[in-house]
Amino acid sequence: MYHFHKSCANIIVVILILTKNGEKFNMRMKKKRHGGERLSLMSSLIVSDPAIVPENIEKIYGNNNPLRIEIGCGKGDFIRGKAEQEKDYNYLAIEKIADVLTIATEKYASTKGLGSLAPNGGWQRPDGRLFPLGGDSVDFTMEEIGNVRFCVGDAAELLKDLPDNSVDTIYVNFCDPWSKKGHTKRRLTYIGFLNMYSRILKKGGKFCFKTDNRPLFDFSLEQVELSKFELEYKTNDLHASQMNEVNIQTEYERNFTEKGFKINMLIARNEK
Ligand SMILES: C[S@@+](CC[C@H](N)C(=O)[O-])C[C@H]1O[C@@H](n2cnc3c(N)ncnc32)[C@H](O)[C@@H]1O
Predict the structure, then answer these.
(1) What is the greatest pairwise CA distance in the chain?
(2) What is the C-alpha to C-alpha distance for residues 14 and 3, in angstroms, rounded to an integer?
(3) Exposed, middle or buried: residue 207 (CB in 10 Å: 0-12, 13-18, 19+)?
(4) Whole-model pTM?
(5) What is the structure's pLDDT at 123?
(6) Rounded CA gap, 180 and 198, in Å?
(7) Is the CB–ligand 1 distance for residue 258 below 6 Å?
(8) Residue 61 in contact with residue 149, Cβ under 8 Å?
(9) Cα 17–Cα 18–Cα 19 angle in degrees, nearest 5
(10) For residue 219, what is the enclosing H or E element?
(11) Taking residues 207-219, what's their average pLDDT?
(12) 134 to each of 121, 125, 227, 248, how far by Cα in Å?
């Protein structure tokens, strides 16, 4: 079964290729024009290295609120919604594809009313000021940006350097199931990753995971069982569950739900 999903007004085309049971998953994206220059315009939304965040939390966010991290934020719908829903936290969204993160940062800035892409390139502030491609980054203030920052890179590498007990919650939403034999260790819910999450999370901190993929979900439950996490909540049909009321849908979640897939979710508490 093939699903073709077009989005972002001709800027990008995302192609989802799903096998019958949704196990195999590929995402391709056309390289964006001026991707690097666009991302550098957004640099006040970006943190270069997550490891520097806990020590500099006040400097980065202007407060000392607990830190929540999303791994693989895609275009950032979840982190935007979550940061709005629970404001007394700081949020860091990590995404390994720079072009995807560019869209996430631009969507975040425009949703906050901080301007939009200019017709001929660059960023236009609501007061009319234009920040051209290749020029200075947009002068967003800390107050305008609020409680979300972004980071580009592979979370598997980036999170290794975070200090122990420095994070409140880790979110993984609709990650790649890595279904091929021999790729199990790449799954973001593999015990190796759970051990790293446990180390950087505070005691009592949460790991929250959503997927449409039932085999991946069942695998993840097994891994949680082997880990220092205690399963606090699970559902195989999130949208019919009590948690739906507070659930923030991700972009993939909306797509899969429209196609009739049920959404699995687990919340696990760090009991190290
Ligand atoms: C299937 S998409 C889901 C996007 C979003 N979470 C959602 O639910 O709509 C998975 C995203 O995670 C990113 N990703 C996968 N592995 C990652 C890693 N190790 N570090 C950072 N981002 C990663 C991919 O580039 C992709 O954008």
Answers:
(1) 55
(2) 10
(3) buried
(4) 0.89
(5) 98
(6) 26
(7) no
(8) yes
(9) 130
(10) helix 214-226
(11) 98
(12) 10, 16, 47, 35
Q: Is the CB of 154 under 6 A from ligand 1?
A: yes
Q: How far is the CA of 27 from the centre of ligand 1 (A)?
A: 10
Pocket test for ligand 1, best of 25, 97, 247 (most atoms within 8 A of CB): 97
- Residue 74 beta carbon below 6 angstroms from any ligand 1 atom: yes
Work out the burial of residue 213: count CB atoms within 10 Å of its CB; fewer than 13 is exposed, 13-18 middle, 19 or more buried.
Answer: buried
Closest residue to atom 12 of ligand 1, CA basis:
72
CA angle 74, 78, 84 (to 5 degrees): 140
Among 142, 166, 169, 161, residue whose Cα is nearest residue 248: 169
Q: Is the pLDDT of residue 271 over 90?
A: yes
**CB neighbour list of residue 246: distance below 8 Å, 6 or more residues apart:** 85
pLDDT value of residue 120: 84
Active site residue 176: yes
Per the listing, tokens 């593999």 go with 190
Distance (Å) of CA 72 to CA 10, 77, 79, 97, 102 = 23, 11, 11, 9, 13
Is the pLDDT confidence value at 111 over 50? yes
Q: Which residue has the tokens 């939390």?
A: 57
Express each pLDDT in 151-200 by its tens digit: 999 999 999 999 999 999 999 999 999 999 899 999 999 999 999 999 99
- Select from 177, 189, 188, 173 the least CA-distant residue to 253: 173
Rounded distance between C-alpha atoms, residue 224 and residue 201, angstroms? 15
- 65, 5 Cβ separation under 8 angstroms: no
Mutual angle of helices 191-200 and 214-226, in 10-degree steps? 60
Q: Could you give the count of Cα atoms lying within 13 Å of 235 in the half-sphere of its Cβ?
A: 14
